[in-house]
Amino acid sequence: MIGIIGAMDEEVEQIVEAMNIERVEEKAGMKFSCGSLNGSEVVIVRSGIGKVNAAICTQILCDDFKADAVINTGIAGSLDASIDIGDIVLSSDVLHHDVDATGFGYPLGQIPRMDTLSFEADKKASGNSRRVLQRSASSGWCACGTCCEWRPVHIR
């Protein structure tokens, strides 16, 4: 079974409309639409915005729906000026850009006690996605986290 997550209704509603829905289950305030899409068993869900909501949703897909794969789809910003609105980007790696444990000797973005800075996307799934698209898509790091400027406040 394939789990498909989008943070907002706008990111999943067309996929839900295209699928054959067999049932809808509600868990943790999220509606999981279960059924088939193009011959594959799928569960599609709007997780809500943020990586905590995405993590909760992914865990439910794995534990309760026994997902073999989870695809996160949706709208994103880009730090690369060559990527335009409507472009498709396949993530090669995911990293946390808002984690800063540099004061403890870790590189910016690395979670303490983790052996890696980024988490590599599944190569088979990425290759299949490229073949389905039948054209080249951009690929690169997907940085998740809060996009804001941090200004430390020093209190005496």
From TrEMBL:
GO terms for molecular function: adenosylhomocysteine nucleosidase activity; methylthioadenosine nucleosidase activity. Keywords: Amino-acid biosynthesis, Hydrolase, Methionine biosynthesis. It comes from the Bacteria. Pathway: Amino-acid biosynthesis; L-methionine biosynthesis via salvage pathway; S-methyl-5-thio-alpha-D-ribose 1-phosphate from S-methyl-5'-thioadenosine (hydrolase route): step 1/2. GO terms for cellular component: cytosol. Its EC number is 3.2.2.9. Residues 2-125 form the Nucleoside phosphorylase domain. It holds the Pfam family PNP_UDP_1. One of its GO terms (biological process) is nucleoside catabolic process. NCBIfam families: MTA_SAH-Nsdase. This is adenosylhomocysteine nucleosidase. It comes from [Bacteroides] pectinophilus ATCC 43243.
